[in-house]
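Structure ticket #2291
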Amino acid sequence: MNIAIILAAGRSKRTKGVNKLLFRVRGKPLIFYTIRAFEKHRQIDKIILVAKKNENFSGLVKKYKFKRVAGVIAGGKERQDSAWAGLKMAKKIGGKSKDLLLFHNAANPLVDKRDITAAIKAAKKHGAAVVGQMAKDTVKKTSERGFVAKTLDRKKIFLAQTPQVIEYGLAQKSFARAQKQGYKGTDDASLVERLGKPIKIVISSSKNVKITTREDLKTLSTLLS
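Resolution: structure written out below.
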């Protein structure tokens, strides 16, 4: 079974507390497009939506008749807390050790179905996979004083995105260890890295952009058209 865990409990700091996932884009809320990407994918069996406590995403799921959403649950204070909640929900709906969990940021509505397919295939073989882009610009490491300290080899710089696909058993082990040690990672794959497990890189479509500001909505509308 392949379970998509869509993380939608962010605090929307850059949009001054207004939930960007509810911004209307071509007549529908932004999160509609994110859920639809996984709803329409034939290899996705179930979807778990992790949202803010006060958001009526259950109503949204019902309105747009998303059939594969198995649950809408409350997220935590940090992204990792929300992912952990999603992982525990996966167990409740029948998740088993070799099932795959696809952790995905709700603010990435244009994830390509081919990227989802490729990430699932890679995770089945390697246990974990992450989609993203190789760096195209020159990357500089900076000093604490704000000067260039070193130029890094961009051929070795990978910009991680989502979905990040992890076997349920491996995810359970890596999240449990992080929780016990009080470690907070910036993404799900970093928790797997701490176990010394290999993570396969999957190069994603250039459309897999993260919507962070109101200006990004214009780009999203253009890409959807």
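Closing remark: The CA atoms of residues 50 and 73 lie 5 Å apart.
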